[in-house]
Design a protein that fits this description.
Elements (H helix, E strand, L loop, with lengths): L5 E3 L2 E3 L23 H14 L1 H15 L1 H28 L1 H13 L2 H49 L7 H41 L6 H4 L12 H9 L4 H8 L5 E8 L3 E7 L6 H6 L1 H7 L7 E5 L5 E7 L26 E5 L5 E4 L6 E4 L6 H13 L5 E6 L15 E4 L3 H27 L9 H4 L9 E6 L1 H5 L5 H14 L5 E7 L9 H6 L2 E4 L5 H8 L21 E5 L7 E5 L4 E2 L2 E2 L1 H14 L19 H9 L4 E3 H11 L1 H4 L4 H9 L6 E3 L2 E5 H15 L40
């Protein structure tokens, strides 16, 4: 023991071996399991199985499993419905169902011409189909005749020669044929097995889809597939307009009747629909913007209007984008050509993309719109066309400082421009001269053999008769009709000219940017033949240019956008259609571009070649128009049979202050006395009688024509002996004879 001890200071240390670090473990407790790949994968699969996406997927799969019987039934229904739709459309195509329906409608309507046209279309279509079949058979026969000898030679060579004995290239040909045959043998059964499956899938999609389907049977060839419009789309669009009677009609299971099925019409689609009871075309037109949205169009591209009856809707829908960003192009006569005014003047393109030859002879025009939208340019285009007719005489009056018609001056017989009173006076005198010319032409027509009712091309070419076309254009005409001195007289003359001048080759063209009842006389807007409206602000201006009720009927220039639709107008009366949306031709006349002057030079050359001449190219000074006092008195009397003299004087002063403000009783009396008539006194008050004024006007007319006084059928001068009517009481105040000291 002593040897194993060592001294370590004052203590002895014993070495017992290495020391180990550890802890006591109770093997009766559960021990941790070792990690394995199998356990990790299982834990990950449990997390995935319990995740939100997998829960949703399991729910959806369970739902589809429960709905599987219903889905199978629906799929079978879709396939059957698709097959039936294909069969029905093929039957309609094969039997010309649409054309036969047109013929049947024409027969029921008694329209023999439309019925013959439909039957002729059926025959021509049948002929075309048989011709196509014949072409296909002929091509097949030609192919067989060419291929049969080649196949026979190849078969004979293969039958009598071994492949090793053939030329190399010939052996390669047979090798290629063998490979192609092998591919065909393999793909043939595959195609035969897959074809029914493809047919079933296609039929299911056809039965599930509610579009017309089988488009190759029913849709015409179009470059823009988005422009396709059919009856189904129109019916759905009308069903969502919010019109109560129409909504009830659809809820009750009604189906619209298309008197004209949707068909391609120019650059768009046209359809005519007979609306159900309680629904009018005006109701649909009032919701034009909503209808356009339902059809996927802009409002400018959708035009619902009233047809031949209030319950018939004419609907024209433009192809997408066809009316935007595209002008009418160059004027057809800008470089060469002449015009016969009896045939019309190229004016623009219709919404259907057709050139419109606007009529001039036999009509009068009113053109209007906001400033800068093409009003003066349209008037200039019409006048350029008239200038290219060597027989036409042209007058132009511009009621403002505008050089739009300055290049026309060599071609014009009368031309005035400006804002002063002399221009208004000249324009008024021109209207009076046109009325005088109209009367002369009426007499000349009456002297012709057969008494023709109107001027014709044959009569216009006879220079001695003086029945050539006479066209008068007044730009900014509202300035003339609102002129304080000449306005009312000019309006009266214009109305008379519009009502009667069209038969005599006298044409009046008016342009304005203020088509209101105050600026344009109502009688002018009522009797105008051709109305043209560029972009306007409201319904009043729209109906002032196009006619009363046009806005309510859906013919609206208020839809035209400023600047965006510059040069585009809504026109009535220029064709047989209810309206036309016209993109007018533009003949440039501005800085750096002048196509007007060359056209006028060509017009002057045509006049010289025809042996004619312009009467005068200078501005002529016209004397002031005389005031017709009797006509003014008749105007202020209106429909009243008699009016007090003081009231007549007041009305005359309001009618033309410059002329009648200084008038007194003696002036009024003198006018009637000079023509054999007198004022009448009734119960102490002096009256002007409408019969006396009419007799005085007949007397004046007889003197003007050289007839002897008194031959005009003047009424007796004596006052009637009967008392006034009982509803006319005595004047409550004053003394008898206060009005005048002279008793007639």
């Amino acid at each position: 023991m002593t040897s194993d001890l060592e001294r370590a200071g004052s203590r002895a240390v014993e070495h017992v071996g290495p020391i180990l670090d550890g802890e006591l473990v109770d093997d009766t407790l559960p021990q941790p399991r070792r990690r394995t790949v199998r356990r990790c994968v299982g834990r990950w699969l449990r997390r995935v199985w319990q995740s939100a996406p997998m829960v949703r997927a399991r729910s959806l799969a369970a739902y589809r499993a429960r709905q599987a019987p219903r889905d199978v039934v629906r799929l079978i229904w879709f396939v059957a419905r698709g097959m039936w739709r294909w069969l029905l459309k093929f039957w309609q195509w094969a039997t010309y169902a649409d054309l036969r329906a047109d013929a049947r409608r024409a027969r029921l309507a008694g329209d023999a011409e439309a019925r013959r046209a439909a039957q002729e279309l059926i025959r021509s279509d049948a002929t075309a189909r048989w011709a196509k079949l014949g072409i296909a058979v002929r091509r097949f026969v030609i192919t067989v005749r060419v291929a049969a000898p080649v196949v026979a030679v190849l078969w004979a060579v293969a039958a009598f020669m071994e492949r090793a004995d053939m030329w190399t290239w010939l052996a390669e040909v047979y090798t290629g044929l063998d490979a192609a045959w092998s591919v065909l043998v393999f793909l043939g059964p595959v195609v035969l097995w897959a074809l029914p499956l493809v047919l079933v899938v296609a039929a299911a999609f056809e039965g599930r889809d509610r579009t017309p389907g089988a488009g190759w049977l029913v849709q015409p060839d179009r470059d823009d597939a988005d422009s396709w419009i059919d009856e189904r789309m129109i019916s759905r669009a009308l069903a969502h307009l919010g019109i109560a009677p129409l909504d009830k009609f659809y809820r009750d299971g009604g189906e619209l009747v298309y008197t004209v099925a949707a068909r391609k019409d120019g650059d768009g689609t046209f359809a005519q629909i007979r609306l159900p009871m309680g629904v009018t075309a005006d109701m649909v037109a009032a919701r034009r913007s909503r209808l356009a949205a339902n059809l996927g169009r802009a409002a400018l591209e959708t035009w619902p209007t009233k047809g031949s009856e209030d319950g018939i809707l004419d609907l024209w829908v433009a192809d997408k984008g066809v009316l935007g960003g595209r002008g009418a192009g160059d004027w057809p006569l800008v470089h060469d050509g002449q015009v016969d005014l009896f045939e019309g003047v190229p004016f623009g393109l219709s919404q259907r993309g057709l050139v419109i030859n606007a009529p001039l002879l036999g009509v009068n025009w009113l053109i209007g719109g906001r400033p800068g939208q093409g009003k003066s340019s349209a008037l200039r285009t019409l006048m350029l066309g008239a200038a290219l007719d060597p027989t036409a005489e042209l007058w132009v009056f511009v009621m403002g400082e505008s050089p739009d018609f300055a290049p026309f001056e060599p071609r014009l017989s009368r031309y005035r421009m400006g804002m002063d009173d002399s221009v208004a006076e000249a324009a008024t005198q021109a209207l009076a001269d046109l009325l005088t010319e109209m009367e002369r032409r009426g007499k000349v027509l009456g002297e012709q053999p057969g008494r023709p009712p109107k001027v014709s091309r044959k009569l216009a070419d006879k220079r001695a008769l003086g029945l050539h076309p006479l066209v008068c254009a007044i730009d900014e005409c509202h300035e003339l009709f609102q002129h304080p001195k000449f306005g009312k007289r000019a309006a009266e003359l214009a109305v008379r000219l519009i009502k009667r001048g069209r038969k005599y080759g006298v044409v009046l063209l008016l342009a304005t940017q203020s088509p209101t009842k105050d600026s344009i006389p109502r009688e002018i807007t009522r009797n105008i033949s051709c109305g043209v409206a560029f972009s306007v602000a409201d319904q009043v201006a729209n109906d002032g240019l196009l006619g009363s009720g046009r806005y309510a009927a859906g013919v609206r220039a208020t839809e035209l956008r400023i600047n965006t639709d510059r040069g585009t107008c809504v026109a009535v009366g220029i064709t047989d259609e209810v309206f036309e949306l016209v993109r007018t031709f533009y003949v440039p006349f501005e800085d750096g571009a002048d196509d007007v002057t060359p056209v006028i030079a060509r017009a002057m050359a045509a006049i010289e070649d025809a042996g004619r001449s312009v009467e005068t190219a200078e501005r002529i000074e016209i004397e002031a128009a005389p005031v017709d006092h009797l006509a003014d008195i008749a105007h202020v009397l209106g429909d009243e049979q008699r009016v007090r003299t003081q009231t007549v004087l007041t009305r005359l002063a309001e009618y033309n202050a410059d002329e009648y403000e200084p008038w007194a009783f003696a002036d009024l009396k003198a006018v009637l006395t000079d023509h054999g008539q007198r004022l009448r006194k009734v119960r102490g008050l002096m009256y002007v009688h409408a019969d006396d004024v009419a007799a005085a006007r007949r007397q004046a007319s007889g003197e003007a024509t050289g007839e002897a006084p008194g031959t005009g059928g003047v009424l007796p001068l004596a006052s009637p002996t009967q008392d006034p009517s009982v509803d006319q009481g005595e004047h409550p105040g004053g003394r008898r004879g206060n009005a005048t000291t002279e008793d007639p």
